[in-house]
Amino acid sequence: MSISLFLTDIKKHLPSDCVVSDPMRLFALGTDASFYRLVPKVVVYARNETDVKQILKLGHKHQVSVTFRAAGTSLSGQAVTDSVLVMLSDAWRSHRVEPLGDVIHLQPGVIGAQANRALKPYDRKIGPDPASINACKIGGIVANNASGMCCGTAHNSYHTLHGIRIILFDGTLVDTREPSSVEAFRQSHSALLEQLTNIRTQLLAQPRLVEKVRHKYRLKNTTGYGLNAVLDFEDPVQILAHLMVGSEGTLGFISEVAFKTVPDYPFRASAMIGFNDLSLCAQTVERLKELNVDAVELLDKRAVNSVKHMQGLPAFSLQLPDAGGMLLIDVRGESTQHLDENIQSVNALLESIPSAQSTGFTQSTHEIEQYWKIRKGTFPAVGAVREVGTTVIIEDVAFPLNYLAEGVGRLQALFDKYNYHEAIIFGHALEGNLHFVFTQSFENEQEIERYDHFMKEVSNMVAIEFGGSLKAEHGTGRNMAPFVALEWGNEAYDLMKQIKAILDPHQLLNPGVVINENDQVHIENLKAMPAADAIVDRCIECGFCEPICPSKDFTLTPRQRITTFRELTRLQSAGEPVNAQWRKSFEFQAIDSCAATGLCASQCPVDINTGELVLKLRAQQNHRSRALAKSLSRHFATVASFTRGALKIQSILQRILGAQRLENATMAVRRWTGGRTPLWLATTPKAAKPIYARNVSAEPTDLNTVVYWSSCVAQSMAGSVNDDRSDIPSAAQSVLKKAGLNIVYPQPTRGLCCGQPFFSKGHAQQGTQMMEEVLDALWEVSSGGRYPVLSDTSPCSLQLKESALKRGIQLYDSSAFIDRFLLNRLTISPERQPVAVHLTCSAQKQGLEQSFKRVLDAVTPNWVQPTDIACCGFAGDKGFQLPELNAAALKTLGVQTTSCAFGISTSRTCEIGLSKHSGLTYYSLFEVLDKVSTKSD
């Protein structure tokens, strides 16, 4: 095996940015959601099927093993390697929905939630619904046969597979949707297909094993290879297609899949039911199985206690005895009548159980979301309170329903025996599928031994005593590989080994996963989770944060920033040398290239804001510039004047040279200086005229009065030389006057800054000082908080909002102010053309989605919000200093906005980048409102 020769050869076929050998990035990219750590020697980004074939060819040539990864949210160690890790470039994200929506064709890089958004107009969805659906990708969903809360066994990847396109170990491509491809494959690989047929013959010759297979797949089961494929199909091509489901990248590469979709009924109701003992709870589940219910989630009393702080939890849940538990029942219907019938059937059942306590079914979207947030909060609740240095482990097993209650009791007894007192149980009760979550340290042999003995007892109890599944939906991976033979028996395990040998004869596809003769592999290469910083110590490295990060396709994601920071901290604490190149790479990729907006916290199950860590590290990194920051903060009015002066000069140059030529010239200089100089974009604004206003404060007796605080950015930047934009203050003042409102301004109108530019550079002291100056001015001018304050720039509103609230100041961002105070005071003639909108990350963090939508519906009802762009990555001045970040975040914007006339946002700096990468002019919300509104009669 020669990694170095593989690396040399692969670089001849792929561009340099598709081949990663930098040690810091290898460590970062090698991280997945499991508790195993293997660092790849090479990471290769495959752009297309040709790349995959070339990688497999060179892997075979140099006897180098290859592991495929999609999103890295898998939990069982199936996506880590110390050899070649193949990741998907962003070229694998296309999909196609058939006309009636009954089938969807998906490439492996499509996120599960994206597939469902594409199907929403058809009232359909994909069958699998894993908890990680907002982050996991189709490739991983199929490779792990993922299921979820509502999926059951009928709607998983295996049962909804319509067709699949795969690349085998020898580079052969077969697409089961194309008859010509299948026929050619039958001719070229007749021997392979004959071997698969022979495995079917062997299985059918063992009636007891046939019955065992049928029993296993009446349950949820992802342990080992899917022998149900061998049993369910006579055609060896279909056997092959369905063996790929759940094969975890050990049998080939899935380059496209077609799912039969399932109905996504619009009418829904949920209820929470409490039981004094789990036996009665389990008996109820068995009876619910016969009714039209979509999901039944079980929580034992320990799980209920873990979320007792959450809103919406019924009071009776806290009075349940230790032996009790709860069910969360979800029913749906294609019509209100259908839904009512389903509710009545469940209620009739519950009425026959006098001891059951129920919230009753609710159809309130808010209450339903609360219930399911409680259920989904159980896993992070354990992660949030774990001891620093421990790992959160989530296992999933499945019991036959008649053993469900006993299984819960036996698991709880094992928790007590092995001192896992924080452990909880919850799960998809209709399928007998239970997840149990506990925390584990791997810092010494005693702890590893404790985990090993616990897992062996669990395995014997589930697989042997109860005939259940050791992995119901999380995949075998390395975690359960030593126990596959235990669960299935030697005869079935021998068939699985034959399948591996047929489809991967050189044992180069993800070796050690699913089939592994090493009975200690589940306790080897365990991931260290050392204390690094209180801000991120709770991170469980699940990867849920990654899709929302603007730098995900440029440098690192929040998960990768945290994992590399942990490793750097570990090396320093242990006194081990840190490679200078490793540190330099970390400083740029982890610190400098982070937008630090903190939007990642909105997706994090334990509410970690990685941006906070980055700002803390920047403060340490930028300590030499503190004196300059202090000076700038003291003379900020002068700084603002210089900024306007610079914008005047650049606009003159744009007129003389042409805006695009100036951008090209500064880009050339940027390349020549190695990225050390800023880029002057063609959409860079001209200078605006700052607000000049009398020093007037509102009096307590004043009527129809508002305070208008315009940010330093809004007062500095007008339109660009290539658009017809006005400045934001002029538009806002015009609208406020049309609404008949008296405007007062904080003083000085120029020179007040929320401090956000200083916070973003790590200068918190100067940022806080400037923020307090603004709040002092707003308190004074608003008559002690009596009058509402309009803030016209979303990042600045976010910066001030919490502190303003503590001061008693009513501060509103643009959309919230318009929604509450202006819509009913104006006559609006809506813009009818399609309009692109961008909800800034700062507006999202303020929870302004609904007010923003209400304003848009009134002003521009034909608005379009591009998908999968959460943060634009402009991040203050990074759009100039690091334009590559902005470009990476908005690379799909132009394609998604081709039919739009213009764009709308609520941050002037964000609008620079949005205009650049869409080809549209992005206006502020106030500019558009000013154009479509008149004074109300």
Automatic annotation (TrEMBL):
Needed cofactors: FAD
Residue runs in coiled coils: none
Domain FAD-binding PCMH-type, first and last residues per copy: 36-264
Keyword Metal-binding: yes
4Fe-4S ferredoxin-type domain span: 528-559
Enzyme Commission code: 1.1.2.4
UniProt entry keywords in alphabetical sequence: FAD, Flavoprotein, Iron, Iron-sulfur, Metal-binding, Oxidoreductase, Transit peptide
Family of the protein in this entry: Belongs to the FAD-binding oxidoreductase/transferase type 4 family.
Protein name, UniProt field: D-lactate dehydrogenase (cytochrome)
Upper lineage: Bacteria, Pseudomonadati, Pseudomonadota, Gammaproteobacteria, Oceanospirillales
